[in-house]
Design goal:
Number of helices of chain B: 1
Strand content of chain B: 25-35%
Largest sheet of chain A: 10 strands, mixed
Number of domains of chain B: 1
Helix content of chain B: 10-25%
Number of strands of chain B: 4
Mean pLDDT of chain A: 95
Structural class of chain B: alpha+beta
Order of helices and strands of chain B: EEEEH
Structural class of chain A: alpha/beta
Distance between the termini of chain B: 24 Å
Number of helices of chain A: 19
Largest interface: A-B, 4 and 7 residues
Mean pLDDT of chain B: 86
Shape of chain B: globular
Low-confidence stretches of chain A: none
Oligomer: heterodimer
Strand order of the largest sheet of chain B: 1-4
Number of domains of chain A: 2
Low-confidence stretches of chain B: none
Radius of gyration of chain A: 24 Å
Distance between the termini of chain A: 68 Å
Chain lengths: ~550, ~80
């Protein structure tokens, strides 16, 4: 019976390929024929995967798909990591989508919230990256996957360049389940720099009339880092990096952690921390890491994606970054997320909202963004078994019982108590708990990182070591203690705060040896993008929107 | 514009500085600007005058200033 079923699936694929007929020459499709070809290879009821993550996008294929109508394409179960493009939203508006399973909807967060309100967003679940990739192999295997690559050769082998990202995680489950893999490429060439996806796993290739969209997502201009962010960075460096001797880590995207990267060669050097902390990273090639790399702080960086403008720099520093034989940068989102889950001692990042129990979210009633990778890294990997100093130290503080792990990952939230526009970061209840959002998500509130997984919350007020708290009430008191003058912070009780401070669970900047008056932009290794170019010895090519000289 | 005044108990400020005043922040920058003056007030209180272009944050101001007066010796200013 197993054989019969496989035969049906394989036969079905053969029928679809047959239907294509002369719309393709072998594997190769001309751009004009793409809409017609999509109609013939996709069937109602299909699980369709559109490659689109927070950096590279199969945007030509997505745009062609969006030119079709419900009569051409209906009852589609869409699976994709990021709903990013207007074309993605178009598919919902046209009523083609029966169900969607995804991870993140950053730039289209407002459009997604509108679709939810209009009941036009039939969501299965919002996932974390590895969770969704895992399901591609189990119960969400694509029948058709539309992907993006930098180059193809005449056989259909693909080169993914710096942004390998999640392409292998889409292609493998699809190709090995008689699914159809259709790649858009920037150009077709005779010889590839390296082969990332073998032609054997690729069914169709189109040379797109425009290069795939690539977002410079991880570039932070040092000019925009504030003194308050520098103060928080100093507190985190002394109170967490130095205290736990954090050797392997992941930084989230944001100015708070960019400040830390730019303090390593200056403030960090002065503290004598070089070689003791921050040696191994799972992070994208952040331009703000250039000064630390050039100062010899960093041994190894593995990335989930590339970053626009870092190509020449990463090739020149192939002793630090993963590169192919030709020196070209290599990334892999699924493996990077796996590494970020199991192989690093610390995740540190920011969030838009944190509730009094330490749960955090970036979702509001008018903007549904989802998760991406933060929850894969910002959680306790209970399957971890290898010990490190940082892991054991955090574990000892958590006072494990007879049935728990000896170690803990450091999961750190680094936030200012207020967001822009005087919106408090700390709230009694997350917007994500809104009943209409929970209903759309089948009863699950979209929480980014759960309070039970968090070990520290750092604000401009100080550090709350929530991992060392002994009760829910104590954790709430510790969070209120660093929540500043937000409504959550104003409810703190002086005696409770003093007691937590005495026990070292709450630490003010002075308790970790930081003088707030010292926190100044002059401590940064460089003040602007131009300085990063200089540090890179001219190898970093910042995107045009960051160049003002 | 919102203006209000309040005194907070605080330990006496021991100052060896010659100047009877100190200024932090930049006039007209839109950021916080603080002028501290040694006043004729009792030495166990910090007397505050707040002027802000953003109304509605009196409770936050009072809480922040009370914490400051508790945490640092600022009496007599």
């Amino acid at each position: 019976m197993g054989t019969a079923e496989i035969a049906v699936r394989r036969k079905n694929k053969a029928q679809r390929i047959d239907r294509v007929g002369r719309l393709a020459r072998g594997k190769f499709v001309s751009p004009n024929n793409v809409p017609a070809l999509l109609k013939r290879i996709i069937e109602p009821g299909d699980i369709l995967c559109l490659e689109g993550d927070n950096q590279k996008q199969a945007d030509f294929l997505a745009n062609q798909l969006a030119t079709l109508d419900k009569k051409d394409l209906r009852d589609i179960h869409l699976v994709m990591s990021c709903i990013t493009l207007p074309a993605h939203i178009e598919l919902f508006k046209k009523g083609m989508i029966r169900q969607v399973d995804f991870c993140f909807a950053g730039p289209q967060g407002t459009a997604v919230a509108d679709l939810v309100k209009a009941k036009k967003f039939p969501v299965g679940a919002i996932h974390t990256y590895n969770e969704l990739y895992g399901r591609y192999y189990i119960d969400l295997t694509p029948r058709v996957a539309l992907i993006a690559a930098a180059k193809a050769d005449r056989k259909g082998n693909l080169f993914l360049a710096a942004n390998t990202e999640e392409t292998p995680a889409i292609v493998e489950p699809t190709a090995f389940s008689d699914g159809i893999v259709f790649a858009q490429v920037n150009e077709i060439v005779d010889k590839l720099p390296r082969i990332d996806i073998p032609a054997d796993q690729v069914d169709f290739v189109v040379e797109a009339p425009y290069p795939m969209h690539l977002q410079a997502l991880f570039t932070r201009d040092p000019a925009a880092i504030t003194d308050v962010q520098i103060l928080m960075a100093m507190v985190a460096l002394r109170g967490i990096y130095e205290k736990y001797e954090v050797q392997s880590l992941n930084h989230g995207v944001g100015f708070n952690t960019a400040a830390i990267e730019l303090l390593l060669p200056t403030y960090g050097e002065r503290l004598g921390l070089k070689g003791k902390i921050c040696k191994y990273w799972m992070v994208n090639p952040l331009p703000t890491m250039i000064p630390a790399i050039e100062s010899g702080w960093i041994e190894r960086v593995f990335s989930v994606g590339g970053e626009v403008g870092m190509e020449r720099y990463t090739a020149a520093r192939s002793d630090v970054f993963s590169t192919g034989r030709d020196g070209s940068f290599h990334s892999n989102r699924a493996m990077g997320q796996l590494a970020g889950h199991y192989a690093v001692d610390m995740f540190i990042g920011a969030s838009l909202q944190i509730d009094v129990n330490g749960n955090s979210s970036t979702v509001s009633k008018n903007r549904i963004t989802g998760f991406g990778g933060a929850p894969n890294m910002g959680c306790q990997p209970t399957g971890r078994r290898h010990p490190t100093k940082a892991w054991l130290k955090a574990g000892a503080e958590a006072n494990p019982g007879p049935g728990s792990l000896p170690g803990r990952k450091l999961v750190v939230q680094l936030v200012e108590t207020f967001q822009a526009g005087r919106v408090p970061t700390f709230v009694e209840e997350l917007d994500a708990q809104d009943p209409s959002i929970k209903k759309a998500l089948h009863g699950v509130a979209p929480v980014m990182i759960y309070g039970d997984d968090v070990t520290h919350i750092v604000t401009e007020e100080g550090i709350a070591n929530v991992g060392a708290c002994r009760s829910v009430a104590e954790r709430q008191a510790a969070i209120r203690a660093v929540a500043g003058y937000t409504p959550v912070g104003l409810k703190r009780k002086k005696r409770e705060t003093e007691e937590l401070r005495r026990r070292g669970i709450v630490q003010l900047p002075e308790d970790v040896g930081v003088r707030p008056s010292e926190a100044s932009r002059s401590l940064l290794a460089t003040q602007d993008i131009k300085g990063l170019v200089r540090w890179s010895k001219g190898l970093y090519d910042p995107p045009a929107q960051f160049v003002d000289w | 514009m919102e203006k209000f005044t309040k005194a907070f108990p605080s330990k006496p400020l021991k100052s060896t500085a010659g100047k009877p005043w100190a200024l932090a922040g930049v006039v007209g920058s839109g950021n916080l600007e603080v002028l501290v003056e040694r006043g004729s007030r009792p030495s166990d209180a910090m007397d505050c005058h707040i002027e802000t272009s953003i109304p509605g944050y009196k409770a936050s101001w009072l809480a922040a200033l009370a914490d400051f007066a508790h945490h640092y010796p600022a009496g007599g200013t």
